[in-house]
Amino acid sequence: MTLFKETLKGFKQFILRGSVIDLAVGVMIGAAFNGVVNALVKDLMTPFIAAVAAKPNFSNLSFTIHGSQFLYGDFINNLVSFLIVAVTIYFFIIVPINKLMGKPLVKDPDAPTKQCPECLSTIPAGARRCAYCTSVQPKMTTPAAAVLSAARSSAKR
C-alpha cells in the first residue's frame, strides 16, 4: 500500500510541476486556435480562391494506368489547403504579432564581455550579477569599468 501512495505522490508532483501545466494550457489554446485558423481558411480564403480560380475543388482529377487510378486531384486539394493555411497564419497572425511586439533585440557582437568566476558563463562586462547562476560579480578595476559606471549613473538620471 505504501508503494502505491509513494507512486501517487510522485505522480501528483509531476502533474503539478509548472512545465506540465504550461504544456497542457498550450495544447488547449492551440486546439482552440486551430478552429479559428480553419474557419479563416474555409470561410474566407477558400471562397476567395474559388472566385479567382473558378474551381475550388480538384478532387475529381485523376488518371488511370493499367487499371490503377491515381487521384492526383486530392493531393492538389491537400497541397493547396496546406499552402492556404501556411500563408494565412503567416500574413494574418505572425506578421501582425511581430509588428505589435516590435523589432527583436539584436545583441551587439562588439559589446565587452567577461566570464563569470562561478559558472564560467559569458556575461556582459558591466553585469553586477551573473544571468545564469545569479552570483554577485566582483567590481571591475579596468578603465572600461569607469566608462560603464558613468554610463549607468547617467542612465539613472
Task: Indicate the topology.
Blueprint: H1 2-15, H2 18-53, E1 63-65, E2 68-70, H3 72-101, E3 113-115, E4 122-124, H4 143-156
Helix pairs in contact: 2-3
Features:
157 residues, 4 strands, two-stranded antiparallel ribbon, 2 domains, 60% helix, Non-ribosomal Peptide Synthetase Peptidyl Carrier Protein, Chain A, 8% strand, extended
Concise summary:
With 157 residues, the chain is mostly helical. The chain has helices at 2-15, 18-53, 72-101, 143-156, and strands at residues 63-65, 68-70, 113-115, 122-124. The chain is 60% helix and 8% strand.
Q: Figure out the total of helices.
A: 4
Report the top-level CATH class of the largest domain: Mainly Alpha
Backbone CA Rg: 28 Å
Percent strand equals 5-15%
Regions with little confidence, pLDDT below 50 for 5+ residues = none
Distance between the termini: 65 Å
**SSE order, as H and E?**
HHEEHEEH
Query: Which percent bin holds the helix content?
Result: 55-70%
- What is the general shape? extended
Please identify which CATH superfamily of the largest domain we are dealing with: Large-conductance mechanosensitive channel, MscL, domain 1
Mean pLDDT: 78
Widest sheet: strand ordering: 1-2
Total strand count, please?
A: 4
**Count of domain modules:** 2
